[in-house]
User: Which sequence fits this backbone?
């Protein structure tokens, strides 16, 4: 009985962790993969007026960079100039993008495997150890706690959060600070765009967390285990 309890606890813990990883990596993937999100902001953020580039040039530069980041196509920024430092930074970004996709794919596969294991164990034993909440409930609580802090930080001082993010994910490097004279791509990627990406990611996480809480409430009402 004790071994069964420990096994169930481990399965619940792994499920909760994987749910967090899939939710966060999936939310991050949304602004990366949904290019119309950027296209819409060309007009909303007045990028054409502010830069003097045509929308065709802006889209071409953005698409070429994203093709490199997502698909590994040859690096380029369309008709816009770039420096070697700028290219090196995008190479670092590509590594993070690929890592995010791997986390999303592996996390989803592990979640499915854990769910199948749970079904097999329940079918074999005919019962399971009762618990108060689903694993995803604790995933939702953890994400709410962490992202509430990040949301407040971003709302109060997005600049410092932006700098802290780059310091954490690009330690010891400063090539993410672009000189618009040599890396013209930064002209079409205003900070407001990155803030909007952060908001979209937060919304995706919030919606998923809401689903987790609703699923837990329904499960508790049915008193399953």
Assistant:
């Amino acid at each position: 009985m004790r071994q069964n309890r420990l096994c169930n606890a481990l399965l619940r813990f792994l499920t909760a962790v994987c749910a967090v990883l899939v939710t966060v990596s999936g939310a991050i993937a949304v602004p990366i993969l949904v290019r119309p999100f950027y296209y819409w902001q060309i007009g909303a953020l007045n990028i054409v007026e502010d830069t003097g580039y045509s929308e065709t040039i802006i889209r071409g530069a953005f698409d070429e960079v994203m093709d490199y980041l997502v698909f590994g196509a040859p690096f380029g920024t369309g008709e816009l100039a770039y420096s070697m430092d700028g290219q090196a930074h995008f190479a670092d970004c590509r590594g993070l993008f690929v890592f995010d996709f791997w986390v999303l794919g592996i996390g989803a596969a592990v979640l499915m495997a854990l769910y199948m294991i749970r079904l097999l164990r329940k079918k074999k034993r005919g019962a399971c150890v009762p618990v108060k909440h689903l694993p995803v409930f604790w995933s939702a609580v953890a994400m709410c706690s962490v992202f509430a802090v990040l949301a407040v930080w971003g709302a109060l001082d997005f600049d410092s959060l932006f700098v802290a993010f780059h310091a954490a994910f690009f330690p010891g490097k400063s090539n993410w600070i672009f000189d618009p004279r040599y890396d013209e791509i930064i002209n079409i990627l205003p900070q407001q765009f990155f803030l909007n990406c952060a908001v979209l990611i937060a919304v995706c996480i919030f919606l998923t967390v809401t689903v987790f809480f609703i699923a837990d409430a329904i499960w508790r009402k049915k008193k399953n285990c």
In short: The mean pLDDT is 90. Helices lie at 2-33, 36-44, 47-51, 55-71, 84-125, 135-156, 158-169, 191-222. The CA atoms of residues 145 and 185 lie 35 Å apart.
